[in-house]
Amino acid sequence: MGPGPLGGPDVPRRGRGAGAGRAGVADLARPPGGLDTQQPGRAAGRLPRRGAQRRPRARAGAGLGARRPGADAERSIVLAGDSHARAWSPAVRAMGERLGYRVYTLAYTGCPTNAAIRLDPETGRHWDACEDFVAFTQETVAELEPELVLVSNAPLAPVEDVDSGEVVTKGEGREVYAAAVDRGLEVALTGLAEHADRVVLLANTPKLPREQAVCLSRADDLGDCLLSPERGPRKLQRGFMDVATGLGLEAVDAEKWFCERRRCPSVVGNFVTMRDSEHMTTAYSVHLADALAQDLGLGTDPSS
Q1: Phi and psi angles of residue 29, each rounded to the nearest 5 degrees, phi first
Q2: pLDDT at residue number 300
Q3: Which CATH number, 3.40.50.970, 3.40.640.10, 3.40.50.150, 3.40.50.1110, labels domain 71-209+230-261+280-296?
């Protein structure tokens, strides 16, 4: 199903009630303040009201695992991005359940959290819904002031250059396109970092040349489905990580959980890792929850 302005799998359609969408998914039909969330052991919550008293801010960059909140304190994680963020949501939700964080997922298929707004893939024109959702993500983080923001995007095109407003396509050259999306990501991450203790980019889930399930259905041996990530998307994702670290933020290179020396098995342990050429399976995402928490330096329980 294509990512229509409100009809993608990550954003409920207009007219659905607050409880009708998936927990933790923003509904563009509702203004900020009506976002469903997931919190361990509690019913779905709401965004804080505008003007509501905020919790004291912690030192920027403080380790989340070092926090020892009181009984009434709340710790939160925001996961933002496009379908890559949606693929990470089972891992982040499982991590939140285990460690005692409220998890907000702001994911819109085809619409990266990037100030260089992608054109509408169906019309080729300016994508108002995507622009609104990117702005909504920034506003939501400003309201929540979370301990951690995780961002995961695909390198999608064409986009509108954040400085000139000109449309930039991959056909104009990798360097021109990379400069535009890197600049847009820089602006987006900078805005998020103003209102969060930590901002971490989840990057470089491999883009494979074919779908694992199709390969496995035809293969005589698992070795036949040992695939290599496509070079172009990999280079762009590594550029995203450079943007994050260049801002003094953090980046997690996810390739290590899928590939060894750029060779990516279709089965890891008991898990088929990818449901298509670039999105992990739900089961493997949940399986990565502990590894992701460890990579982020989070504790093993809420009191750690």
Answers
A1: -75, -15
A2: 55
A3: 3.40.50.1110
